[in-house]
Design brief:
alpha/beta; globular; 3 domains; binds pyridoxal-5'-phosphate; seven-stranded mixed beta sheet
Length: 465
Amino acid sequence: MRQDLKLFSELCDFLFEEEQKNPVAKPIPTSELFQKLDLKLGNEGVVDEALTNTLKSIIERTPKTASKSFFNQLFGGRIGKAALGDLLAVMLNNSMYTYKVAGPQVGIEKEIIDNICRLSGYPENSGGTLAAGGSMTNLMALLMARDSKFPEIRTNGISQKITLYTSEASHYSASKNAVLTGIGRNQVRFIKTNNRGEMSASHLESVIKNDIKEGYKPFFVNATAGTTVLGAFDDIKSISEVCKTYSLWLHVDGAYCGSVIFSKTYKHLVNGLDFSDSFSLNGHKMLGTPLGCSIIITKHKAQLHHSFSNEADYLYQTDGDDFNLGKTSLQCGRRNDALKLWTLWKSVGTNGLEQIVDHQFELAQTARDYINSHPDYTLYSYDDSISVCFNYKDIPANVLCTALYEDSQLMVGFGKFNDTEFVRMVTINTVLEKEDIINFFTTIETYVSKHLLKNVSHSETLIDK
Ligand SMILES: *Cc1c(COP(=O)(O)O)cnc(C)c1O
């Protein structure tokens, strides 16, 4: 193992160099992947220098999510202490289901959950757990809501049309989870948003009323703190009033931007969070931990237990339920995803997490200021969002993003809202500074003038939508 750690350290040095030298790895067309790289597995082992070289060639061509040219996803960057915590979790290799096998790691997870409950305004004795990602924590919320409203479903299965509500701009996991749970996609109601991408509480109420009239059984509303494209925050307070009137479970999907709870300046964006029944956020998005680290909390700790515990005497042989985390999790064997967030949190304090979050909003403001002061750009997103959506010189966003990627300039994606497609640059990458935001725009401008608008006939075909 010590030798492997040495090799690991050597490979990290190689990776750091690559991130500097080639911040956007040259993409390999899928048709050439297995010719270009030695990925095939064989009967004979490959060791020593041959293995090292193979690993290096793979690292070289793997997309660099911690480089200063990565704006593509709702995560990015690397924070040393968080990565350290995760590496330690690999070395310790506990499974989080019992106190017997995870020991103090259970306390680490509980401490994270307690603090997030407190910051969210949840009462004492609320509960929570971690799962591999936001889709999974959203699934857990849906299951708790289903079981709390229709307890008989756990034994008898679903026999009525039960409906759930989420905005048109919400993450696709809402309908995917409806499929997985046997509720069915046709029972998902997509609620209209305003022009900022925020769910309309009045449309929500009218759809619920109509469903009740038609014999459906509404049970669950999903509000979003940071929608996937525009980064919009639903008005939790007014949505919660509708939920109260019709006794519906309110979940707040904060996978993307729920971490605003750490910021005194931005926590107002989730005003009313304390009225929700459950809330999830991803440590691997705004907080900058490695993937995956998703946390869900709920006021209904007993429901968490009812929905996810199954008696298993071979497993739960010691200690109280409160320290046997397997009784409240979706998985059986479960990776220690708490340690990376705890190590980061411990080392920078809650104030440090606040700075991480605030910095992302500052960078987004830098980007919006740049766009607003350069007439060749059109801005489509709003203040208080770390997704900056724009178009440049009417160049179709997909053409621009694909060209920038294939020519190893930048990794940035595109999105759509109300039939308009635009570039979506995300300022969540933890290694970014203000100058990187300016570089992002000048890279686009230089590239476009050199390659995309070189001659008139070419530019006409590009602009011709
Ligand atoms: C990213 C995201 C999810 C899904 O989280 P994963 O960890 O990728 O599964 C869910 N909801 C929203 C709003 C997201 O941005």
